[in-house]
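Notes taken during the Thursday session

The instructor put the following on the board and asked us to keep it in front of us for the whole hour. The protein is Response regulator. We were told not to look anything up and to reason only from what is written here. First, the residues (396 in total):
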Amino acid sequence: MNTANRQMKLMYIGSDEAVLSGFKELNSRVKLVHHNNPLQASEWIEKNEKIDGVISEFDLPGRNGLDFHTVFVEKYDAKMSTPYLLLVGEKTPEIIKQAIEQKISDVYAKPVQAETLSNRINFLKVLQVHMKFNKPQEENNVKIYTTPFFKRTFDIVFASLALIALSPLLLAFVAAIRLESKGKVYYISKRVGTGYRIFNFLKLRSMYPDADKRLKELEHLNQYKSEETEEELAEVMQEDVVSEGSTILFGDEEEVEEVTHIQRQKQKQDKAFVKFENDPRITKVGHIIRKLSIDELPQLINVIRGDMSIVGNRPLPLYEAEMLTTDEWTDRFNGPAGITGLWQVEARGKTSKMSPEERKGLDNKYVEIANSKYSFWKDMWIILRTIPAVFQKENV
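Then, after some discussion, the predicted structure tokens were revealed:
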């Protein structure tokens, strides 16, 4: 499952000497197959075994990297199981849009380190397994969490009754959101839930419509940001593009020295959680609905659909979940995703500045609860604790 334990075979299509030189330094971990143009690459693929990933320049003789990706998928990778990275001189809106439409794995602006590219492909391969693209439960007898009958029955009944009872309140705040700022009154984002399954996560909009675009400029206010220099904190960010429900992640090049690689991976994990105190992106109505957790009400629809449960670990955005790939972090995905859980009630009861380690510990603890024989009654205990927590002054 983990390509880090063996030599990866990657194909590079292009003639950038800096890229080739970088991969030579990784020859103990990466076997690079190099071709100058798409024709040579196609001929090689037809005669040889499958590769772990493709890295292609945008500018190629005869056709560009986007065109070759179309051919590669049609002829050799119909299931799109092979990561495909595109290297460009500059990320233009046109290239990004086309890459999203073609579902290219990632786009990097040069210069970019070979280690960054190989690590990204390795992560994408691991994530595919977690998302059951390769059905690991059949090959490795991995136990996948399934919602118990009583928990699922409670979820459906509770969510349905709550939606009916709270519909007048919900409609009132929908009208308030529309009056305060333009844009849709609801917000849909891709979230990662149980077993790394991705689904559409529903909320009432509490931020201004351009909030996602301001995320990077407000990065210095992040409560979970580590005490390092700005150069050291360059990280993979999510390009906020809404296109028929499709979501893709694009990474900026990151300077990583060999001797500090392990330390930097921990820094990335610490930065996976994003939180601001007195967040300037939130509207006036947004502060109210967040304070009373009214923005969470549309998630009752997610519960009825089976995406989530009433109680569970919060489903994470893709740009957060993609950084949590070590065993101690991935345990949180072995239980149900939920509207409320241990993290919410503990955070409200103690302090708004909960560290990533504390949050991780509570998420993993709930996974143990969810898989125990007393899980249903412990869920009821968490729900009872959630009710007073909603009205506490702490803003979590």
